[in-house]
Write a structure and sequence with these properties.
Elements: E1 5-10, E2 16-17, E3 31-35, H1 37-43, E4 81-83, H2 85-91, E5 95-100, H3 110-123, E6 128-132, H4 136-148, E7 151-157, H5 162-170, E8 174-178, H6 182-196, E9 199-200, H7 208-223, E10 231-235, H8 240-255, E11 265-271, H9 276-283, H10 309-319, E12 322-326, H11 328-342, H12 348-362, E13 371-376, H13 384-388, H14 402-407
Bound molecules: pyridoxal-5'-phosphate.
Pyridoxal-5'-phosphate binds next to α8.
Amino acid sequence: MPSFVTHLESAIDGTALPHDELQTTHADRPLWVRYDLDAIGRAVTREDLRDREPTLWRYRELLPVEHDENVITLGEGMSPLLPCPRLGAELGLKELLIKDESQLPTGSFKSRGLCMAVSRAKELGVTRLAIPTAGNAGGAMAAYAARAGMEAFVFMPADTPLVNRYEAGLFGAKVFLVDGLINDCGALVHRGAEALGWFDCSTLKEPYRIEGKKTMGLELAEQLDWTLPGSIFYPTGGGTGLIGMWKAFAELDQLGWLDRSDRPRMYACQSGGCAPIVTAFERGERHAEPFPDPHTIASGLRVPKAIGDFMILDAVRESGGQALAAPEAEILPWMRKANALEGISLCPEAAACLSALAELVKKGELDPAERVVVFNTGAVQKYVEAMECDLPLLPAKGEVDWDAIARS
Ligand SMILES: *Cc1c(COP(=O)(O)O)cnc(C)c1O
């Protein structure tokens, strides 16, 4: 099946670029992938989707890969949308749903973006890939590179969570621990490109990771029978998922697939320890300043400067949503609460969303009767350091005082 892509478009000034050759950025800013939506509308209906396999490739017409043989897949997508009555009650909400991305390949939603980026890179002749990562993106790129038989180079801060440090190497990548932050890793990937001839898969520095993450929005619409929820809480680092979902909703609307054209309010959630988007939102600015001394246990949110800052802020503002910072100290308590109440493997990044959501409800700024969707972007098992913090593990050696346990 050929793709319906017509061209790429600069997000900052609208310049059109051809899609049949490798592209990165334009004027150092990201590119949109544009499709012939009229032709897609003639080729497929939303009813046609029903019989397709439960992966993100069911939306094939809305995806950029040209030839089926270039699809690199580990069976990603169609994550469950789980009702959370206990956690919802704790938050004072009538209907809380968690879109659980922890079950995707490599344990995070990064697989959505990277299966698309790696598939397209392969299609366009790339054999060697590199990426700077705050953690999960490195593992996902390494896995898809292995699947495609391509070489992978991963650069991450030396204090990235332990599991992230090892998984990329296990998937066969060369892993570099950098004394610095993700932007320092990005600078190294940029500098090495000439010497090693690799393609840079950095967030939003190639056009196709957005298209992979867009499928979260497509799935959500289909799972909710083509009526979008009242609000979406999304843990925001580089912002690809939020930008991608906003694009998905626009494309679905243009296809006429939505029963109601109401869009959700988008809430971009960060940690108070690294909140560049929140700062720019509150100042009414379209571009974010680099956040000084960024730190957070939610490692996926430790992105002090995002090149798609204006795309995140435009989407949040158009939607009537907000950018919200969770106090760093609230993240672990919410993570423990959510895991224990619902049995969902909920990561610290999603816990930041819960904290921000709780505060919004408390301030009376969210209608507790509306349908609320929170994205759980990764599996908590990848965060050994965060899990270790003061969880009581009871020793059971020799005689156990059963009565004391019964009283506790
Ligand atoms: C990367 C990451 C994020 C941030 O995602 P963006 O789309 O880049 O904003 C959130 N949560 C987890 C678990 C991540 O790995």
